[in-house]
Amino acid sequence: MNSIKISYNPAIDGLRAIAVLSVIFFHLKIDFFRGGYLGVDIFFVISGYLISSLIYKELETKKTFSFTQFYERRARRILPALLFVIIFCLPIAWFYIFPYYFKDYLLSLLTSIFFSSNFYFYLTRVVYAAEDSILKPFLHTWSLGIEEQFYIFFPIFFIFLLKFFKKSSMWLVLIIIVLNILFSDWMSKNYFQINHYMILTRGWELMAGVLICLIQKRHNLNLNPSSNNSLSFLGLILIFFSIFFFKETTRHPSIITIIPILGSMFVILFAKDYTMTNKILSLKPLVWIGLISYSLYLWHHPIIAFKLISHQENNYFFNNYFLIIIIFSLSIFSYFFIEKPFRNNQLISKKLFFLILAFLVISLTSFVSFAFYKEGLPTRFPKILKYIDERPYDISKEDFKICFQRKKNFCGTSSINDRKDSIFLVGDSQVASLSHILEEKLKKTNYNLINLTFGNSCYYSVGYGSDSFCTQDAQQKRRIEIYKKPNSIVILGYTSSFMSDKQKKFSLLSIKDLLDKNYKVVLIYPYMTYKDDISDVLKKEYFNNRNFFTENSDFTLSNEFSIFNKNYLETFNALDNIQNKNLFRVYQHKLFCDNYIKDKCVFNNKHNIFTVDRSHPSSYAGNLIVEKILEKLELN
Predict the structure, then answer these.
(1) Facing residues of 456 across strands?
(2) Bond into 253 cis (ω within 30)
(3) What is the pLDDT of residues 188-217, one digit of tens each?
(4) Bridge-partner residues for 524, per DSSP?
(5) Is the whole-model pTM more than 0.70?
(6) Which residues lie closer than 8 Å to 299 by C-beta, 6 or more apart?
(7) Both ends of the chain: CA-CA distance in Å?
(8) How far apart are CA 552 and CA 548, in angstroms?
(9) Helix, strand or coil for residue 160?
(10) Local structure of 521: helix, strand or coil
(11) Distant-in-sequence, close-in-space partners of 630: CB < 8 Å, separation ≥ 6
(12) Per-residue pLDDT tens for 229-280?
């Protein structure tokens, strides 16, 4: 494979070093690097520049372009190190990630190999800068997905552009960038989550690198040394300003993202050999870090994530300095023993490379399939830990997207279900935690479940709105959906205290309105709440002593029943005052309070937890609650 190379500029590796260090320091939560996530955007500019320069040079030199060689080079560059990190982390995940998240973890691995993890994390509603996002060991592979999607389609576009629009190519790319920035800015205001993860809103950052290539090739800028010095240093200032002063809450990518992108462009365009910027970026330590930047990027996120997953956050030994040593040590190893050998087609032939690749991908895919068939391999842990970390409200999905928190296209409303009678599930995340169980149970009946659940105590309360999700408009949409199906069954969750007298008033009116219109209404009464996150409590006990649950078989978490009664007395009184022949009541607490232990509400028995965090029922408890609901409706 005769590879085409472009002239090496050590300052590019220095820029890579700034990019990767800013990302690492951001994930280590070092205060000065609140905008460190922008390192990924710098990488995009560099990638766009290098790839377009390689394609341009190959077309210039050979007058043709080999797609097979191009994709082989990309595969050799990205996949071996990625697969090595994945395989290395699997045994750690085996011992520390519980069944529910283990399935999620394995899917993130699989989608990262097939360059689609950005879609996966979007569809599973992972907010990149959220507090718990660091607990996803391979979340950072979303950017690899974008890069690889760019590599797949860009050569075709770029060759077409150079063949038919070579003279105007720079201006056409500039127009594409401007339009894409405007689109990205609009998306950042209206659909911030998909805006973060998709190439359609990130493409302009990669195209900025393409623009640099075209400027250099088609319109070589011959500025005087003073101008190059000033502009390249200005680029460095823009980059560091963004890293230090952007925040997690900054709309991004958007128009404001032009600042670090322009900074990166200025550095690449104007940092000639003689400039101060080039001399800074060409310092040997920075160049060396830049050379291993891909391995550093791959290793840093899993290492930080597994520290937190294994509850070592308070272990002084696992401080940031020690983590950095681990990250660099593993990165140096994978650079010299994985990256470099696999890039060398003289050392590892094309045939051998693809044989190794096929074996590893097939093996990993088979393991993931087996783990899913076995429900996340729960036998790795004591039975009581089966539902640890479960997010039951996120289990129910339709069209690959979670049903909970939808603003439109509610699950169960498609035309395929029109021939069935409907049961509406309306309430907050506690009621949404029952949805996957209800769906499964109702398959044996002629009923279809329509999921109208939102978070944050978003009870059915037409005319009342509490936050950006539970708005008056959202309540009206619920009402409209229900009224499309007269005489249906409506399950309403009022699973905690009312947030205000106004919410209580509108909730009671909404219930009365349904009953007056001859709907059957099932009221789900409050669920118990524990003082701490139960999954965290049990994990800490288990990680401190893996025999804990064998040695303490009677271990039970509980609250005083009297506290439950006191906390929810107002809710009970308000709901109990409603009387109607079509009204049914399900008291969740009766399954767990003053039952197992007198005067106590318990959160687990010997083999199962009833609550997964502080207040959401596990799938085990959900099954018990759903049985009560179906019993009331005579559907069991």
Answers:
(1) none
(2) yes
(3) 999 888 999 999 999 999 999 999 999 998
(4) 493, 586
(5) yes
(6) 85, 327, 330, 331, 334
(7) 66
(8) 6
(9) helix
(10) strand
(11) 441, 636
(12) 999 999 999 999 999 999 988 999 999 999 999 999 999 999 999 999 999 9
Q: What is the C-alpha R_g of the chain?
A: 28
Distance of CA 80 to the CA centre of its chain: 24
In the block, residue with structure tokens 């309430």:
427
Distance CA 408, CA 426 (A): 14
Distance, in Å, from the CA atom of 118 to the CA atom of 99, rounded to the nearest integer, reads 23
CA atoms within 13 A on the CB side of 25: 17
Assess whether pLDDT exceeds 90 at residue 301.
Answer: yes
Q: What is the 3-state secondary structure (H, E, C) of 452-468?
A: EECCCCCCCCCCCCCCC
> Residues 617, 434: contact at Cβ < 8 Å?
yes
Report residue 180 as tokens. Answer: 């894409």
User: Using the 8-state DSSP alphabet, how is residue 616 labeled?
Assistant: P
Query: What secondary structure letter does DSSP report for 388?
Result: T
User: Angle, to 10 degrees, between the axis of helix 142-164 and the axis of helix 99-113?
Assistant: 20
DSSP run (H or E) holding 137: none
Mean pLDDT along residues 308-328: 84
Amino acid at 564: F
d(CA 424, CA 453): 10
Give the 3-state secondary structure of residue 252: coil
Exposure of 232 in the CB half-sphere (CA atoms within 13 A): 25
Report CA-CA distances (Å) from 460 to 481, 489, 502: 12, 14, 13
Q: Enter the DSSP assignment of 593.
A: B
Look up residue 337 and give its DSSP letter. Answer: I
Which pLDDT tens digit goes with each residue over 508-524?
A: 999 999 999 999 999 99
Distance CA(164)–CA(158), nearest Å, equals 10
Give phi and psi for 49, each to the nearest 5. -65, -50
Q: Under DSSP, is residue 154 helix (H, G, I), strand (E, B) or coil?
A: helix
DSSP secondary structure, 293-335, as one string: HHHHHHHHHHHHHHHHHTT-TT-GGG-HHHHHHHHHHHHHHHI
Q: Name the DSSP class of 338.
A: I
Strands (E), 368-499: 397-398, 401-402, 421-427, 447-453, 489-493
Beta bridge partners of 611: 617
What does each C-alpha distance from 161 to 169, 171, 253, 359 come to in angstroms?
6, 11, 26, 38
